[in-house]
Specification:
Length: 215
């Protein structure tokens, strides 16, 4: 691998632990609009896909027709409930993230965030983590690109950053995110546990990008 020029991060499961907050907000939205509920295990089985895809799956399961009005209301309420969950402290943040991004910038490298999530949510996360001014590019759902596992979002991020895949390291936690990053031809490090993203890890990968730890 050539010299590292960029680090790109997924959000949920990498920069923040959002499992509980996302499940609770989704379940509250399902209860409101589909008049039923789902278990945590059912949400986990759906995987880290966009909310509108979860709506389609759940609507078919419960024999509900998805109109444009329902879709818009469902997505809006899911986001509003998520804001309430964040306000109640149900989103866990990695306290090393700010130091990680400052280190990356100090080395003259570019930083990016790639997520299927709403741009408003990502901005909120960046603000809480203290990295609002440290992120060079953020590719979110507002770009209306094919979502992960399609590599389009990662390819767009690297294009915006002006870096090659061979000089880029991506941090992902989910199978679909890993697949998207691998198909973009970037180096991919699997964050199996939210707490595993450490400044020492990023320094090690920057100093020796030819390690065998990539997936």
């Amino acid at each position: 691998m050539e010299k590292v020029n960029a680090f790109i991060f997924d959000v949920d499961g990498v920069l923040v632990d959002s499992e509980y907050a996302n499940f609770t907000s989704l379940n509250r939205t399902v209860e409101k609009h589909l008049k039923t509920s789902i278990r945590f295990e059912e949400d986990q089985a759906l995987g880290p896909i966009p909310t509108f895809k979860k709506l389609d799956i759940l609507a078919k399961r419960f024999s509900v027709t998805v109109s444009e009005e329902l879709k818009e209301s469902f997505l809006r309420d899911k986001f509003l409930f998520l804001q309430e969950e964040i306000g109640q402290g149900n989103l866990k943040f990695n306290t090393e993230v700010e130091s990680i991004f400052k280190f990356i910038k100090s080395q003259g490298c570019k930083t990016g965030i790639v997520s299927n999530a709403r741009s408003e949510y990502i901005d909120q996360v960046k603000n809480i983590l203290g990295i609002m001014e440290l992120v060079d590019v953020c590719v979110s759902n507002k770009f209306k690109l094919p979502t992960k596992p399609n590599p389009s979002m990662y390819l767009r991020a690297m294009s915006e950053l002006g870096v090659s895949p061979k000089s880029t390291i991506v941090f992902e936690d989910s199978d679909i995110g890993i697949q998207a990053a691998k198909d973009s031809c970037a180096k991919v490090f699997h964050i199996s546990e939210f707490s595993n993203l450490k400044l020492s890890l990023v320094k090690s990968l920057y100093e020796n990008p030819n390690q065998s730890c990539f997936v």
